[in-house]
Design brief:
By secondary structure, this protein is mainly beta. Helix content is 12%, strand content 50%. The protein folds into 2 domains: 43 residues, no CATH class; 135 residues, AOC barrel-like (Beta Barrel), CATH 2.40.350.10. The chain starts with a helix and ends with a strand.
Length: 183
């Protein structure tokens, strides 16, 4: 073994020895059995799921949310309205449509009310595109990702982080969703 490889090996062994010694323990804030323990911090997020529907009858009163392009009625673990604010969109000649924006969910989770904001990115394939960058014809497939905006939660969603994902069910005409919350 040459001298160049011995020095890093000795340093690594020294760090391992110090880190594994009995005198080196977790800080009090991360001790096992305490509310903010390592075990608690490693627990997974809460999963949720349901189905969203385009609010064709305006049960969500889109006009009440100034600037919203439309709303999605959410059923399942999330019950309420997801108001969609389109910021940008584009469509390529192949019919690939991309859209980004913001959303406001107002409703309930497990019977408790609250609200939160997301940013979203929607990608879909349509039959064609209009000159203004919007889509033309029927949707062939679509999906979107909605990360929650940190600090935007109120009520039951105060302090929550996470994301919401949808994959359009073209045949059924709805938007099955799933996601996770970290409270």
């Amino acid at each position: 073994m040459n001298k160049k490889s011995i020095v890093p090996l000795i340093l690594c062994l020294g760090l391992i020895t110090i880190g594994c010694s009995k005198d080196y323990s977790l800080s009090d804030g991360l001790a096992l059995g305490k509310p903010e323990s390592v075990l608690m911090k490693s627990m997974g997020a809460t999963q949720y799921a349901g189905i969203g529907y385009f609010d064709a009858v305006d049960a969500c009163n889109v006009a009440g949310q100034e600037g919203a392009a439309f709303a999605v009625r959410m059923t399942g673990d999330l019950e309420g309205c997801l108001y969609v604010f389109v910021d940008e969109f584009e469509c390529s000649p192949s019919g690939t449509y991309r859209e980004v924006g913001r959303e406001l969910f107002i409703g309930t989770y497990k019977g408790s009310s609250g609200s939160f904001w997301t940013t979203y990115r929607f990608e879909a394939k349509y039959e064609g595109c209009a000159e203004d960058g919007s889509y033309l014809g029927a949707e062939i497939l679509g999906r979107c990702q909605h990360p929650l905006v940190d600090g935007s939660g109120e009520g039951v969603f105060e302090g929550v982080s996470g994301r919401l994902d949808m994959k359009d069910d073209i045949e059924a005409g709805n938007y099955p969703y799933r996601g996770h919350f970290k409270f």
